[in-house]
Every structure is written in structure tokens, then in C-alpha cells.
Amino acid sequence: MKTKVERTAFPLRFMISALLLVCQLILLFVLLYTLSSKFFLIWLLSEVTAVVTVVFILTRRFDDGYKFAWIILILIFPFFGIAVYFLWGSGRLFPLLRRRMTECESHYLSFLSRDGTVLADLRRQNAVAARQAEYLMRESGFPLYRDTAVEFFAPGEHFFPLLLKELQAAKRFIFLEFYILADGEMWHAIHTLLRQKQTEGVEVRILFDDFGSVNRQQKNLMALLRQDGLQVASFNRIHPAVNLFMNNRDHRKMIIIDGELAVMGGFNIGDEYINRIRRFGYWMDCAVFLRGSAAQSFAVMFCTLWTFSTKEKIRLRLPKATPSPDHPGFCLPYCDGPLSLKNPAEGIYLQILHTAQRYVYLTSPYLILNRKMIAALCMAVKSGVDVRILTPHIPDKPYVHAVTQYNYGELSAAGVRIYEYTPGFIHSKLFVSDDRVATVGTVNMDYRSFLLHFECGVWLSESQTVLEIRRHFEGLLTQSRETNWREWKKCSLYERIKRAVLHLFSPFL
After folding, report:
1. Could you give the percent of the chain with pLDDT greater than 70?
2. 95-136+143-329 is a CATH 3.30.870.10 domain
3. How far is the C-alpha of 311 from the C-alpha of 239, rounded, in Å?
């Protein structure tokens, strides 16, 4: 049953912002094309400008599919396409914002201790995994740990009671960061504990994405939380003006308790994530609990984005490292975002595919792939690696699912085995390979996660958790149906045209 919040209309602020934004875009379109239709020189200028912009786009470091979609738009609607591209499509070209983010990162990264012997130990155990770890350390800036116990949980209703227990035990601080913070049973239970812990002197900070939480919260939630004494901020608030940064959202999900425990994964705060409501059939999601020094990296990620958003520095006090000899293995937290010229989120997926020897299993709610990723998946399977992909059978966005199914064709023809989770919607983002390495996080297999969103994850190696993730994946396959290339070819002409057209503009989805 849907909650009261889900039945309400969009908040007035969002409706006004959306309406004014659409009006600005329509006005821009009409103005530019009215002028260009009346004056030949203006039309000629638009064409020349379009060609120059296309050449500029071709020189960028972006994925070719992303470039191609923008080039088509610009060649059809020169001035309008150019204006929209430089407002929303130019990606990682925000020098002032990037400088501010770099300053925030540098400040908080200095809080982390680094042990150079950890990578050497991993290299002795698994040279291939050590290459992946070294790549992530260079690209994301976070250290490799071996003193952290990692527990994997799925689905959401299995780990939620433990999460409440850990929140109850907090002593010093609780940081929450989510793309969606929705009203409902899950939030009410968490909110009750947060108010209690605040009265006990625990520092509580909440950061959520403004767009992701639209239409999912009670009115004036932030004001109510502040009345409770909780510190709260919304990331990249929606405004009624065209905004260079509006298309970039905080897609991360994490809870950090006392700098000793971090909980992260695919889940948001919403009742569908713990199956209290059914929106798209049964919701399959996951989380990892990290106890030990690796939790400090997630605390640094939170503080960095909090300071970037609010300009308020947090007095971060991290505990001393407490080794966990009973939990052998290595883990490396990482994050990514549009203000970085690096791309560790996509890069670690490619690293795993390129170095796999026996198998790669992955789950993703979306499969909107660029040519690099398709080539890596096909090359792996043609090299004898067992590559299996699990996607939802019941989609949350039909138009995105059409693009996902479009990609089935080339992949299944190459030998990649693709399954759809029949009970409903699988939202987990998992990679596991060769019983040696795995990743859990917020990174979808799509352009938004790789280019436009702030994301996070944790890379694992030589850990029992890797085997648990593999067993979890194999269990999901028993509830899934396999698709194949022959079946894909049998879809109707209309469906094939729809998928192809949507695929063409998939970077905008």
C-alpha cells in the first residue's frame, strides 16, 4: 500500500522550478530559431558555430556514445543544442566548483592514515588484485585496508533490524547520506533513533539529494529536523533557473557511525527498499557493513560533500585503527563524481573484466553501456570467461529498460549470458570475479553513474565476503529467466525501432 506522501502532488517549489525551467528552454528555442529563420547571416553563424562546437566535442575525453548523442542534437537544432550542451552536457568542465571540491577533498583526506605495507601484502597474495587496488588508490585517493570486518546482507529487510541496532549503539556521531530520503516506516524508525541519539549528545548530520527525494517527503521536513536539533542539508537544491550543475546529483548511499562502522550499498531510505511496499514487484537490494578503519574513508567522503554543499567544515575526530585479525581480507572504499577528471567507478569495472580468468558475474538495474564497456564484456566472454549479467524483469523506468534490452542483442550474440530477475526489481550493483575480487556500491552500468553522478563503492579481495556475494548471485539466478539472442531477434519491428531510437539518445536518460 502506498504511503500518504507518495499520493500527494509534487511539492509546489519543484513544480514552479520545473515550469520556469521549461519556459526558459522554450523561450531560448523560439528566440534562436525566430532570429535564424529571418536572417541568413544568423542562420549561417549558427551552422558555423555548430560545426565548431561539434569539433570541440570530438576532442573531449568523453565516451563516443555520449558525444554522438550531443552532436545529433546540435546538428538538428544548432543554437538551442549548443546552449543546452554547455549548460548540462559539457560534464566535467566546472573549474570553480572543481577547485572547491579539490580543496574539500584535500582537507579531509589528510585525516586518513596510510600503511604502505598493505599493498605489498596483497601483491604477494594476488598480483592481479593488487593491480586493481593500486589503480583505485591512484584514481580515488583512498587507502587500502586489511583491518576491517566486512559483512554482506541482502535483501533490505534482512539488514534493516541490524542497522537500527547499530544506530542505537552510536556514541559520538552519525552521518547519513542518501539519494532518496522518503517518508514511511523505514524513515520513521530511523528518525526516532536519531532524535533519541541527539538528546544523548550524539552529533547527527543528514545529507540527501534534493531531486532524488522530490515527492517522497513530508512538507517542511528540513525545518522539522532542525527543530529536533538534527543538522540537515540537501544536495544541489532545485532552482527555477537554468543551472550548470543541476544535472549532477548525489547518488551515494551511506551511514557512518562513530567512524568505526560504515553501512553502504544500493539501498536508499524508502519503504520499497525493505519491501514494506511493492512498487515494482519484489525489491532486491543489498548492503555491506564495514567495521574497522575502512569506515573512516566513508566518513571522509561524507564530510567532503557536506562541506562542499554547505561551506561548513566538520571537526572530524576519527578513532584509532583497531585491527580485526579474525576477518582476513582487503577492502578499498572509493568514490567518483563529475567534478573529477578521473573515473574510478567505470575504471574498476573495466579492470575486473580485463583481468578475469574464470568468471565475472554482475547485477545492475540498468544496462546503458558505452562502446568501451560492451567491448570489454564481449572480449572477456570470447576469451573463455563466463560472463553473466542480471537485470530486472519488472522495470522502474520502461524507457530505460528498453535501452537495457537493446544491449542484450550484441552481448548475447557474443556469448554473454543475460538473466532477468522475475520476482521484480533488482537494484543491487554488484561485480564478483574468480572468487578473488568483488565490488559493492551505488554505481549503475549507465552514463549517469559513470559521468554525471556522485557515486561510491567498496572493492573487496581475498575475503570470505567475495564468496558470499557469488553465492548470493547464484541464488538469484534460480529466480531468474535467461534471455538469448534468438529470443531477442523475435521482438516486433516496432519494439526494435523504439529500442534503437532510445539507445541513440541513451546518454540523456
Report:
1. 84
2. yes
3. 19
